[in-house]
Amino acid sequence: MVFPLAPRDVDDRDMRFELQRLISFSAFPQCANVFGLRLAQAGFFYTGLGVTVKCFCCHRNHSDWRTDDDTLFRTGNEMHEPDCAFMLGTDTTNVPMHENGRQ
After folding, report:
1. 10-95 is classed in which CATH architecture?
2. pLDDT band at 40, cuts 50/70/90?
């Protein structure tokens, strides 16, 4: 007998893969002055809700894209939970697009 699987939550859809996080930004609104690539590299994926992104590791949401000037928003540690393993460099599940600097 085969049991049906419950639908996977967006958090569980392989967002540990940087490439999947980058792909999630294909539908990101252009009104936010941010780069999807930079956010994906910082552990975030687009949730599909407004301009809200979420860390795949600590699950913290971020949607405040105000900047002091016309420069692009800069990602930073304050976007993650203080104990986020990705931010601390102790996460072992992240899969970068280019390992060891190779393309």
Report:
1. Orthogonal Bundle (1.10)
2. very high
